[in-house]
Amino acid sequence: MGRAWPHDTIGSLKRTQFPGREQHVRLIYQGQLLGDDTQTLGSLHLPPNCLLHCHVPTREGPPHPPCPPGSEPGPSGLAVGSLLLPLLLWDCQIQYRPFFPLTATLGLAGFTLLPSLLAFAMFRP
C-alpha cells in the first residue's frame, strides 16, 4: 500500500489503493475495523508511519453455493464429547467403586458400547 495523508478518508484510501474492489476491502488498525468510510485518518489519531492491515476477500458473492431444498448437509463425523463421556464415567467407576453397583456398571458398559459401535460404523471403509 502507498502513503496516505491525515486529510484522506477511509473511503478515498480504499478507492485509490483498490480501484473497483473498494466495497469489499476492510481496513484494520490494531485489531479495530475502520468501518466508517467518511472518517479521515487524522480524526482517528493514527501515528505517523503506522501500519494498516487490509482484508481483501478472494471470492465475491456468497461463500458457498446454496443447497437444493431437502439436501441440507447434516452433521458429519462423530463428536469427540460422545466418546469422552463414557471414559469419564469409567474413571469415576474405578475411583468410586462402592457407588457403582452391578446394575450401574452393566448400564455403563452398554452406554460405552453404543458410541463405540457408532464410531466403528461411521468410519468403516
TrEMBL record:
It comes from the Eukaryota. GO terms for cellular component: centrosome; nucleolus; postsynaptic membrane; recycling endosome. It is a multi-pass membrane protein. GO terms for biological process: ERAD pathway. InterPro entries: TMUB1/2, Ubiquitin-like_dom, Ubiquitin-like_domsf. PROSITE patterns: UBIQUITIN_2. It is found in: Cytoplasm, Cytoskeleton, Microtubule organizing center, Centrosome; Membrane; Nucleus, Nucleolus; Postsynaptic cell membrane. This is Transmembrane and ubiquitin-like domain-containing protein 1. It comes from Eschrichtius robustus.
